[in-house]
């Protein structure tokens, strides 16, 4: 169930102000998908066995870039994920949008609701928590959302493989065309301590620099056995849908580290994994993400995916209403009314 404009009419002035301020700031960033003028700012470049969308330096903007000249061929083997090297030659662009997180199609939990090997995730290492993003339903960003979808379509149409058709993993459509899109989060990273991707983009928001210091501190603490018992970001205390998957998670500790979701609340504080669901599901957020392309040769599909780099909550989810019990309970009972007393009198 998504939030409607009418349900937002009673919001307090503070969230409304945050929403407007974020919109005004992003409109001048050259990366906001609600701004049609950014279409000439980007190009696709090869990255591993796929492609990544990157920002074109301002001096080159005289000639609108296209990706038709790039080699979009793929290997004969299936490519299940694009895989970005730790130090890419060209920094990916952080596209940005203001969106509402759908409450129904929500999998952006600490473990993606993983319950063991299945048809989607063969092992814990494959898990990539995701969510569906829809129209925020409130101006000024409500009018920007159709533009956001259009811009994403435009970018994906500029990176195609001959004879391939478009996969449906990124956009979801109705009778009028794409109505929402999906983003995911990379949960694991190879190595005990790896410089986070944000370090390569000093031009970006000051908030991204805060992510670097916060997450580096969390990841460093994971290497300390003494800190694991109290660190909410550690393998030992990472929230799980099913406790039986804990052993599988701990088995990854020697070769990987967990990447906490770079998500911040209204006050700019990093949100702990245990609060992901109550903080995100149904919220309006400012999200920054990279856009990737790869091909699946066996199915002849072009697949596109967005990987979350930063989330800033602008409007928290509405409190969940608890329905009143149909049968009211007494606030006090007498000794004679207890079940044991009644049984003795029978």
Automatic annotation (TrEMBL):
Region named Disordered: 63-86
Domain of life: Eukaryota
Annotated Polar residues bias: 69-80
Protein name per UniProt: Unplaced genomic scaffold scaffold_126, whole genome shotgun sequence
Species this chain originates from: Pisolithus microcarpus 441
Lineage: Eukaryota, Fungi, Dikarya, Basidiomycota, Agaricomycotina
């Amino acid at each position: 169930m998504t939030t409607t404009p009418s349900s937002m009419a009673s919001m307090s002035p503070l969230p409304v102000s945050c929403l407007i301020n974020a919109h005004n700031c992003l409109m001048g960033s050259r990366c906001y998908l609600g701004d049609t003028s950014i279409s000439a700012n980007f190009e696709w470049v090869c990255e591993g066995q796929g492609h990544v969308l990157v920002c074109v330096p301002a001096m080159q903007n005289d000639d609108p870039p296209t990706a038709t000249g790039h080699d979009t061929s793929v290997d004969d083997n299936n490519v299940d994920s694009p895989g970005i090297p730790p130090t890419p030659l060209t920094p990916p662009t952080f596209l940005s949008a203001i969106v509402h997180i759908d409450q129904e199609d929500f999998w952006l939990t600490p473990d993606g609701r993983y319950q063991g090997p299945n048809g989607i995730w063969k092992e814990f290492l494959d898990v990539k928590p995701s969510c569906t993003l829809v129209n925020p339903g409130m101006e000024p960003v409500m009018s920007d959302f159709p533009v956001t979808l259009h811009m994403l379509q435009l970018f994906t149409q500029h990176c195609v493989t001959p004879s391939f058709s478009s996969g449906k993993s990124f956009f979801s459509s109705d009778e009028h065309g794409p109505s929402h899109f999906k983003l995911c989060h990379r949960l694991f990273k190879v190595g005990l301590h790896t410089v986070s991707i944000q370090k390569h983009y000093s031009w970006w928001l000051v908030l991204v620099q805060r992510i670097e210091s916060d997450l580096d501190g969390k990841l460093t603490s994971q290497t300390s056995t003494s800190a694991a018992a109290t660190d909410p970001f550690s393998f030992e205390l990472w929230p799980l849908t099913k406790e039986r998957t804990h052993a599988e998670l701990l088995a990854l500790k020697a070769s990987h580290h967990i990447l906490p979701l770079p998500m911040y609340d209204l006050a700019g504080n990093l949100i702990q994994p245990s609060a992901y669901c109550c903080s995100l599901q149904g919220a309006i957020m400012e999200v920054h993400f990279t856009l990737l392309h790869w091909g699946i040769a066996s199915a002849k599909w072009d697949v596109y995916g967005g990987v979350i780099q930063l989330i800033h909550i602008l409007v928290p989810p509405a409190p969940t209403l608890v329905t009143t019990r149909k049968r009211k309970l007494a606030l006090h009972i007498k000794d004679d009314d207890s079940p044991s007393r009644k049984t003795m009198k029978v």
